Each structure stands twice: as C-alpha cells, then as structure tokens.
Amino acid sequence: MKLCPENRYHHRFQLAVFLLGLILTAGLLAWLGERYPVRLDLTADGRHTLSPASRTVIQKLQAPLTITAFASDDKTLRKRISALLRPYLEHSQKISFEFIDPNRHPGQVRKLGIQANGELLLEYQRRSRQLRNLNEQTITQAMLQLQRSEPPLLLFLSGHGERSPARQANHDLSEFAAALKAQEFRLQTVLPAAGDPLPQEGILLISHPSVALLPKDQAAIEAFMRGGGKLLWLADPGHSSLGFLATELGLQLSGDPIIDPNAKLINAPENFVVARPGEYANHPITAAMQLTTVFPEACSITPAQQLTPQNQTWQQTPLITTARHSWVDINPADHPPDQPPQFNPGQDQPGPHLLGVALEQGPQRAVVICDGDFLSNRYLGNGGNLQLGLNLLNWLAIDEQFLDIPPYQAADAQLRLSQREGMVIAFGFLLLLPMICLIIAARLWWRRRESA
Question: What is the pTM of this model?
Fold first, then answer.
C-alpha cells in the first residue's frame, strides 16, 4: 500500500515527535540520576556497600575529616578513587575530599612525604595518616586510628612459655596482635625478672604461663596491680603458678574443664563452651555482641571464700555464663576415650558456671577469662571471638566508644565447587547448551525450507 504525500508527512511528524520525546525523557532521567543519585547493591555479600564496621566508625567522628588524594590528571585513576570514597561522603557531612595533582604542587608533595601516585592523606584533629594501598579496610582502619587521641599500651608477659604475639603457631596470638595494631594499640613484650618495667599506664596481658613465675616476676605483677594497673588474664586449666593473682582479685579458678553439650550444635568437642547471643551479660563489653563465641577447654570462676583487705574492694560483674546443662568435669581421665563424657551427679559440678568476669576498683579495671585458646590463631576466626577480644581491650583501655565497632572481615569472593558440580556446569555449558542451540537452528531452517 502506497502512502499519499499527506499521510507520509503525518507519519514523519509522528516519528519526529516520538524521537524528540524519547530524547527529552532520556535527558530528564539522566538529570534526575545526577541530581538525586540512588545506589542499589544487589550483590549477595554487599561488596559495593560500606560494611557495618565502616558505618559505625563514620558515626563516631566528632570533628571534620579531610581526605586529600594526590593523583595526577588521570581520569581512570581519579574515577577509581572517587568511586571508593563516594560511600564515605554519602554517610557523613563531616568528611570532605579533594584532588591535588602532584605534578603541579611538588613542594607540598615533598613536604608531606607523598611517594605514590594516588596516595591518600587523611587529616583529623591535627593527626594524619597516609595510605597507598586503597580499599575499604585500610581507609576505615586509618579513620579508626585517627580517632584515638593516645594509643593504648598493651604489655604481653613473656619468658614463661606464654602465647606469643609474634609467633605464627596455632596456639600463639599473632593474628590477634595484628588486629590490635590495626586499632592503634602499641604492643610490647615484658619480662620483669630480666628488669623490664611494667608501666602503670599499660594493660598487662597474661596468657597461660607453662612454667612457674620467678619471685621477681610475681613481685612486679603484685606491685603493678596494687599501683592501679589494668589486667587481662587469659587463664586455662592448670594455672597453679598464678594463684597469687587469683587471691589478689578475690577469685577462685577451677582447674577442671567445663563440658558444654551446646558444642554439638557447631560440631565441636564436648569440652568446648559455646556462648550464644542472648546469653551474654548486660555489660559494655558484651552488650553489643551478636555472634556466637567459642571457648576451647575452658574452666570456671567463682568468688573467693575468704576476702582480704586487698581484694574485697573489687566490684565483680559476670560477663559470660555457661548453659544450665553444662558441668565441670572433676575427673576427665575417668571417661573412656571412645565415649563422650557423661555427667556424674556424685562428683561433677552442675552448671551454669561463670566463664568470664569484669572487675573494677575505682578507675582500675581487670578482666579474667578462664580460657586462653579462644584468641589463639587457631580459633580467633570462629564467630565473635575476635570481636570479644577487641571489646575486652577497648574496655580496659577506657575507650568504650570503640566497643560497638565490629572487626572488618573481608568478603569471601571465592566460589568453591565439588567435582560433581564442576562436571555438571561443564557439561551444561560445553555440550548441552550448544546442542540446544543447534537443534533450534536446525528446526528453524527446516520450517523455512518447508514453507519455501
């Protein structure tokens, strides 16, 4: 059918109006997107959204934070840096950001010690941090470090077989030490018997000495505590050499392990104690805990029956209590090795039992956890173990503003498939899908041949 000139012009006019409306609509949507940006992260692990830890750190800002990116006039580099910092700017008006071309300001670059193209400078309350490795974790950790006015000092007692903050063995504390350094703690190992001082402003961490302390060590620790020093004692079954410390704090620690049937819920041995959300005490250390913590081979704590003038002024607050159906296994050697332990009403002590306690005496603070393995390299990644450890040290350092900041955990971006799953995917994409496409193409060809 042929169109008359009038209809042809009318059809062209409709087409022109449609194209103009389409262009105007696209322009309006682009303007709205630029004016009112909306981001929707549909990834399963929220990899394009700030983590809860980052959002909490941003909310803690008390003063303006200035971020300066020293980047050359490279659109790709600047776009990448802008995309990384945009979520921070959207969450707080206290954060400002600018680019400086190092080629145009060589004097300023030299004065600040900027060494890499794309390096960030974070400034907060006359303190600064420089970053070359740029990702959410490093930026958030730098912001957290800047908020500490004075980095706390943590003293690791050493020389008696304690867990080490430097060694990489499963029972050592090197991974926990790395997390503490990320929160701007200063770490130092001390051996009082060799003449190392115990500064009163420090926090002393004692983690299960395997040999007896020397009299000089004991005297130094007693003087440290009576002088107002802060203490984190990670005790374990078999701590006879530290009985003087338990007396100093007005506590009694059992040398026998706790059996917790709840450990079966996470496929752990029966001598593991599991603390779940809702079972923590209402204390600043544990109030914000939302994860399960695991304590391998824990023991129990009870108040001392006889108090002395030195320890009767300690205010004790329970932190972690075991389940009611747990018990203290008085003679674990009596159980057959191939059978799970059973409660013996005649000798075992039924639960609940106190596993952790916080103590206060005026401005002085101490925490005793009757298990040291939960912060070791082997078990630190279980549930909320790391968060609980950081909360303990932040409370002892009287930096309670950091208690509700969960540790940053990188998302697992790996896809793990079994051999069968890999074979199914390979068969589907390499054989089945191409065969389906060939069958559809052959059918279309045959139908066209028949119609012709």
Answer: 0.67
